[in-house]
Amino acid sequence: MPIGIDFKIDKEALALLKRFTKGFFFVRQKRIPTTLCQAVTIGLESTSHLPVLPINNGYLVERFIDDDGVLTNDFSRRYKTVSSDYVSEGYAALCPEFELRQPYFNQLFTGTEFEVSMARSQFRTNKFNNLALHYYNLDYTTNSSIGSETYNITAITDNIKLLKGKKEVFSSRAGEAEEQWRVSYYEYRNKSKNARNLLRGAWGPFLGIEGYNTNKMSLINIKIPNYNENSIDDYFSIRFEDSSSFYAVCDRTLWEDVDESEEMAKVSGIFRGDCFIGNYTHRMCRNFQDPSSPINDDIVDAMSWKDNYDPDNQESYSKINRGDVNAITLGHWATVKVCSNINLSMRCLDKSYSSEEGLTGKPRGFYPLQAMSTGGESKIPESFIINDGINSTTSDKYNFELPDVPAIKNHFGVRIMYSDININDSFKNGYRVFRLTNYRDYPLTYGNIIKLVELFGNILCVFEHGVALIPVNERVESGSGAGGSVFINTSNVLPENPRVLSDTFGTQWAESVIKTPYFVYGVDTVGKKIWRTNGETFEVISDFKVQKFLNDNISLTEKEMTPIIGIRNVKTHYNRFKQDVMFTFMMILIL
What we know:
With 591 residues, this protein is mainly beta. Helices cover 10% and strands 35% of the residues. Strand 32 and strand 33 form a beta hairpin. The model has no long low-confidence stretch (mean pLDDT 88).
């Protein structure tokens, strides 16, 4: 939701303005922010260095086993509450704007100092409430004290094993996907086969804040680098002297439409254009994608961990079923409401990971656009991209006029694409794999390609007004030895320059080209010729007696190239028993 401003205009000033103008609108320059972003502080578990949410009587951690060491998908048996004695309160923060603009903030939040102040709005209770896996806090109050402190802030991106700030260590990963015995501990390191304080999985991005000493769950404003409250007059002076363009932030309004019922004329709901209030849902953690079965969420042997995890006998680690450990449906979500410089509602799906989408059946998304799912198909990171074009807060948008057609058509009439080499008994059908770079474009000198015919191991390419022979995987014999001939292969599957057999006659009808044991025959209705070729020579066979018949009866023009069954087509047939080639012409003109 955008934040707006109400303007009040003195009625004497309003009367003066009415004498010289018919209406008004408000403009502004692009904002120079003094607040980088707003964040919600949570806790940092001291042993695993992972972010944790404050809840009743402590902080929430989500394990992959229950109190008996059994692998289970039941969240109520896996979650635990950690005492605040084992948590650095306020040393982690959820920052929506950082998550959606990570390339920018990763350059700033490198453990350097930033001034941080308390926001005007604060949570009334310093804990999250929950509904199943969804954690939130809807109880707010107004804060009168907004004193500022200086803290070191470090950006922690998704699924990072370990990152050191100035003094503190931060992490967003526990364990490894490939090694099922790798874990992180919470509260204390417990290298015992009966250990239950174990964590695995990948956590989402967050901010590490060192030296935080205020409330454990607060809304904080992170200021720009080198921000100084004493320099506020200088900031305004720079703004007043700026000569950059102004942009409209409201509709054009007539003076007659202004509300003058009160002492001062009031203009309401003018969009500031530089600040938004929005809800943002962050997924705290997820399980790893198993290398062998990435989207599996079925547990085969729930006792696999309990029976085989023994740090004193590491040979037993190989008996732990990695697929079962990586099948646990980890995940819980936290929703926060913050002010931001961008419209959080412009967050969108991330379809740039096509292989991942093909594997899971869905692109990277977020709640509420996608459901809160902990299933095997959801063991992927959230989407952290935003539509920057629509998100622009001023009217400086570029609009491009597109033709009023269903699509912009690109025609590749002279392109030949080729597949991978097929391997017998292979699981993958190579004939069906076409790579984006496996093609060859030929010039339009002879028109579009009408038909391709295999001829003695080569490709006979029939254009509209030409015929060419294209070798495939061409090689040259360079010598011979005891093992046979020696060849030099070319690096190209298809050559750049084909061998042109005819630069005058081709065909406009794909069905008029037919292959016989010795020749390939075709009909050119524009040149009114019947031709044949064996790949070495090209000859016209319709001269003399047949030529007069073709000249008198072929009425197809160069524009009539679309076959219509029973009305318009040229088709060639081959009778193998009689060794005859027959040509059929259908030329019923449609007026």
